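Our platform keeps sequence and structure together, in a single record for each protein. Nothing more is needed to write down the fold, since each code stands for a local backbone conformation. An entry from our holdings is shown next, in its original layout:
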Amino acid sequence: MLIRRSPAAPAAARVTGQRLVAAARVGAVSALAVLLAGCGIRATEVPTNYGPAPSRVRCSLAEPDVAAQAARGVPVQVFLLCGSSLVTVDRAVRVPAGAADSERRVLVAQGLLDELAAPPSPTEKEAGYSTDVRGGITVRGPRAGDPEDTLRLSTAPDSLTSYALAQLVCTFSDSAAAEGDGSVVLGGPGAQAPRRYECTDEVRARPGSEELPSRDAAGE
């Protein structure tokens, strides 16, 4: 006699198997929770809050108040250090009205120097800005025999750090203190002839590792 298996038997077996798998999964999850608790780690089903995102993007500042800057003097830009590069920051310097071009060049250069030596504001510090230029440096015009656009510093340029010299050269060469050709003639307090320094893209990108291009400016 043939015995026919009920068609419901495989279905019942499948249901029973599924229940066993589900029970095994629940047991595994429970065991994992116990293990984590024993290690001092509390299980959670919600994303962990790691705190707010940084409030300011590095090397990025809010748009300057142009009207406020104009009230403080002539709007200018100086190069500060941020990360491993030189980045421009807006400033203002005071220049007396009616000053001759030669006098104006020196006044602008001194104002820029003072701004470079000033500590960055709290907002600038938060964004990662710094300066390597130290205070107390003064600037004068050319001596007899110097090119007419020479700026003589109270500290010899080659005694400055590579970062400070790059800040000075790039700031001066991009201002009314120079002729606007991307270079500036700098000398020191001694008898050494002044040199013409250039601010290049490579110097702005890597001021600490790229040597400033320069040449003897005597006889220009």
User: Anything to note?
Assistant: Residues 1-56 have pLDDT under 50 and may be disordered.
